[in-house]
Structure formats: structure tokens, C-alpha cells
Amino acid sequence: MAKEREPLVEPRHDLSPIETDAIEECLYNYNRCVIGRDDGRGLGFVIRDEMGRAIGVAAGYSWAGTSEIKQMWSMRPIEDAATRGSY
What we know:
Elements: H1 17-35, E1 41-48, E2 54-63, E3 66-74
């Protein structure tokens, strides 16, 4: 009987968008089967200034009563309680 080989972990910084999408699809399909929910949808928020120009965007998805923000961009610095008014 042949001995099973240990899996090889290969770190990469160059996954293509197609490879990343394939991973996301496999994860979604697995989770959909295990949880029994098939309601995944893209989710986005756009922040506009008084002229209607986009000055911030958050994008991600919602699924099974949860959501995840995967990307966020803001034209202006985002303030928090620690930095408000300090610049």
C-alpha cells in the first residue's frame, strides 16, 4: 500500500481574478449545500457628495442573513473618534 503524500502548500501572490472567482464559487456552492441557503447576492453602498459625485464605495455580498464588505474606497479620509478634527 502506497503511503499518502502530504499536501504541498504553495504561497502565491498572483492569483488571477478567474482563479479567485473559481475559489469563491466553490466556497459558495459548498456552503449552500451544507447550510441549505441559496440567497447570495452582491451588495454595495455608494456615498455621494452634494453634486452627486461618488466619493465613497463599499462592495461585498449578503448571504444567509449575513453580509461581508470586501472592498471599500473613500475619496476623503475616514474619521474615527480618535482622529476627528485632528487634520
